[in-house]
Amino acid sequence: MTDLDQQARDVLDSVRYVVLATLDEDGRPRTSPVYFTPDRYARLYWVSHPDTHHCANLRRDARASGVVFDSTRPPGQGEAVYVTGTAREVGAAELDAHVPVAFDPARGARRFEPEELSGDADLRLWVLELEDVEVHVPAGHPELGTGRDRRVPVDPRV
Q: Where is region (Disordered) located (predicted)?
């Protein structure tokens, strides 16, 4: 594991929201902040109402990307993780397998039970399977800076 892999883990562990980007029917991007839980740095879980705009977009086109960052950091000191992957609603038959890893009480997440995420319930569990993960490397990074901000691919998976 490299220092940048660890940086990605640290950001994913400490930040609670991902700005999730989906595609509207006309191809325009749509962003939504969603509270997430990472699972082994290979997937992100969140809970949403099935009628939300981003869920409708994902049912039509499962491609998604997002950025996880701490907006309180001063300019030039920001750290960000960019993710790209395929998202889907976790089906009722799969909930027993996914629920134990989808909610981390240490992050302040409320653990939902499968019956709260299926049938007539108001919420559904979603998962983004990460295909690409990159970290933000600022222009003036002491070792990796190139004079311009850039993204560097990493593999933070456990």
A: 139-158
